[in-house]
Amino acid sequence: MTDKKEPEQKQNKLRNKTMVELLSQDVAATRERTKLMEKIDNLTSTNVYLTEEYSKVVQVRIDQEETMVNMSRIIADLSTFNSELQEGKQKLEEASIVLHDVNQKLQNKLMKEREKHQGILGELRSQNQNVTSALEKQRTDLNQCKEELKKMSAKLQCAVEAYHSLDRYCPVVNQNTQGKRMCKKCAEGWTLFQSKCYYFSSRTLSWSSSRAWCQTHRADLVIINSEEEQVQMDQTNTRLWIGMSDIEQEGDWRWVDGRQVTSNDWTSEDIEGEDCGHVDTSEEVLQAWMDGSCKISYRWICEMNV
């Protein structure tokens, strides 16, 4: 029994060994197959890449052939253009020669014209100098005439003023005296007091207009220097502009001759900060000076030396 089992065991071992070897060979074959498949895939990818590269190379070759054709055309065009340039250059050189000749002729003509114009210009300058001298002489003569006219006008003005003064101060007595005049120290309508003439207006004006009226008659608004002089004015029983104001500087009262008003002959109830002075002849003498708005219209008193 034992002898029969031993051959079977050997066969089983041999069978198992064979199966193991076959399995090992199958695994190895599978691995080889896998490697072959990977190589096939790689070769396929490489074939695709090479096919694409070949297509690119073919396209590049086609592009190069087209470029060569285009370059041949460009070279032909450039050759034609160069020929045209050479022809144009030749024409320009010929035109330059012609222009040079024309320019030379114009230069010669211009030189002659310049010499001709220089002569004319010199003559015109000489004539201009003569005209300028003549105008200067006429201007000098005109200025002399103007000066003489001013002197004559001044003399005429003096004569007119003298004539008017003659009528004012020495009026004709009457027609029966054949123009005989009777002279007075003050003009008609003016009043003599001490050594001055006074004019008492019958109408009213502002302070500045009143002063302007006096100045047109060679006088000015009255400057009161004494109580006696003011008493002489206190006969009208009204308000009268006199020649003092603080127009230049508020509070600094000045007479029209520039002297400062030093008297304190003011009414105590009428100092209102106005700019022009007047007298109220209805007040007492020592309270008659007042300030008022320069725009108010009052009568006025003019004063002038005899």
TrEMBL record:
Coiled-coil stretches noted in the UniProt entry, renumbered to this chain: 85-162
Keyword annotations of the record: Coiled coil, Disulfide bond
Pfam families linked to this entry: Lectin_C
Segments forming domain C-type lectin: 193-303
PROSITE patterns according to UniProt: C_TYPE_LECTIN_1, C_TYPE_LECTIN_2
SUPFAM superfamilies: C-type lectin-like
Gene3D superfamilies membership: Mannose-Binding Protein A, subunit A (3.10.100.10)
Taxonomic superkingdom: Eukaryota
InterPro entries xrefs: C-type_lectin-like, C-type_lectin-like/link_sf, C-type_lectin/snaclec_domain, C-type_lectin_CS, CTDL_fold
PANTHER family to which the protein is assigned, alphabetical: MANNOSE, PHOSPHOLIPASE, LECTIN RECEPTOR RELATED (PTHR22803)
Name of the protein this chain belongs to: C-type lectin domain-containing protein
The organism's taxonomic lineage, starting at the top: Eukaryota, Metazoa, Chordata, Craniata, Vertebrata
